[in-house]
């Protein structure tokens, strides 16, 4: 058991991360996993969690936190009738199927590979946020099936492998096809629900019986970290959603992009540092 001062820091860090993640969930339509995964990865180090399961545990726990965060954010956006419900209904199967595929991959993948995937995708997302002013338009309407279903599957797959809610990927997809950015953000909160709910089940299954998991873990989900983080995300998500409808987010997008690059660099460094 870590010293009491380290436990206090652990609680404070997770509470702060939860507030930031919840605010970003509402503001950008993301689940906050980009914030939570690296914080959880470092936090579990204090509890002597083996490197072989630490990345998996950070991703699975992040997905568990995203469940209420996404629900709260989606509820706030839905009250404004902002999400594209037709798109969400069409993705009720493809997105969870992508998440299920990610769970199978995670079950047989090392922590190093998962960190590599996270670092690569985080760097790509960060560069996109920093250098892309607007998404390049490729059409004025969303593609039809099977292309639309395939996009949903890929968003579910990549997002679950990162422990994120899919907001950045879905925002890019929708705005590329002429959808207003505020509608894309609102819809992304619903995509987060489609990713996080099956993601929790999948990562519990993937980590069932794994060795070295800290106390209060079920598979690759640590419920102590979930309990410490969720209250702050629930409080902050509606505030982010409210501000999203009237705020110029360019500077915040830049800040999030820089953060993603830093996280990608940190995870890349950990691959070589051991």
Automatic annotation (TrEMBL):
<dbReference type="InterPro" id="IPR002781">
    <property type="entry name" value="TM_pro_TauE-like"/>
</dbReference>
<feature type="transmembrane region" description="Helical">
    <location>
        <begin position="189"/>
        <end position="208"/>
    </location>
</feature>
<keyword id="KW-0812">Transmembrane</keyword>
<keyword id="KW-1133">Transmembrane helix</keyword>
<protein>
    <recommendedName>
        <fullName>Probable membrane transporter protein</fullName>
    </recommendedName>
</protein>
<dbReference type="Pfam" id="PF01925">
    <property type="entry name" value="TauE"/>
</dbReference>
<feature type="transmembrane region" description="Helical">
    <location>
        <begin position="113"/>
        <end position="131"/>
    </location>
</feature>
<keyword id="KW-0472">Membrane</keyword>
<feature type="transmembrane region" description="Helical">
    <location>
        <begin position="90"/>
        <end position="107"/>
    </location>
</feature>
<feature type="transmembrane region" description="Helical">
    <location>
        <begin position="220"/>
        <end position="240"/>
    </location>
</feature>
<feature type="transmembrane region" description="Helical">
    <location>
        <begin position="252"/>
        <end position="272"/>
    </location>
</feature>
<feature type="transmembrane region" description="Helical">
    <location>
        <begin position="151"/>
        <end position="169"/>
    </location>
</feature>
<keyword id="KW-1003">Cell membrane</keyword>
<dbReference type="GO" id="GO:0005886">
    <property type="term" value="C:plasma membrane"/>
</dbReference>
<feature type="transmembrane region" description="Helical">
    <location>
        <begin position="57"/>
        <end position="78"/>
    </location>
</feature>
<comment type="similarity">
    <text>Belongs to the 4-toluene sulfonate uptake permease (TSUP) (TC 2.A.102) family.</text>
</comment>
<feature type="transmembrane region" description="Helical">
    <location>
        <begin position="7"/>
        <end position="37"/>
    </location>
</feature>
């Amino acid at each position: 058991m870590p010293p009491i001062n380290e436990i206090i820091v652990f609680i404070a860090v997770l509470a702060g991360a939860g507030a930031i993640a919840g605010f970003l969930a509402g503001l950008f339509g993301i689940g906050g996993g980009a914030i939570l995964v690296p914080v959880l990865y470092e936090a579990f180090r204090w509890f002597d969690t083996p490197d072989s399961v630490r990345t998996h545990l950070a991703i699975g726990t992040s997905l568990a936190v995203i469940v209420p965060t996404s629900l709260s954010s989606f509820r706030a956006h839905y009250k404004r009738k902002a999400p594209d419900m037709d798109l969400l209904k069409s993705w009720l199967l493809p997105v969870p199927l992508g998440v299920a595929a990610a769970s199978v991959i995670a079950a047989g993948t090392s922590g190093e590979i998962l960190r590599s995937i996270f670092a690569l995708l985080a760097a790509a997302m960060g560069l996109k946020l920093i250098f892309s002013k607007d998404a390049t338009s490729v059409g004025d309407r969303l593609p039809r099936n099977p292309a639309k279903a395939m996009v949903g599957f890929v968003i579910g797959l990549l997002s679950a492998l990162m422990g994120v809610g899919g907001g950045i990927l879905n925002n890019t997809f929708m705005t590329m096809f002429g959808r207003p950015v505020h509608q894309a953000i609102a819809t992304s909160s619903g995509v987060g629900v489609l990713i996080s709910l099956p993601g929790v089940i999948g990562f519990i299954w993937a980590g069932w019986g794994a060795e070295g998991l800290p106390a209060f873990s079920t598979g690759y989900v640590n419920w102590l970290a979930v309990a410490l983080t969720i209250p702050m995300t629930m409080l902050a998500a509606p505030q982010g959603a409210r501000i999203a409808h009237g705020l110029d987010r360019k500077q915040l997008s830049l800040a999030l992009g820089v953060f993603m690059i830093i996280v990608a660099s940190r995870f890349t460094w950990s691959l070589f540092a051991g």
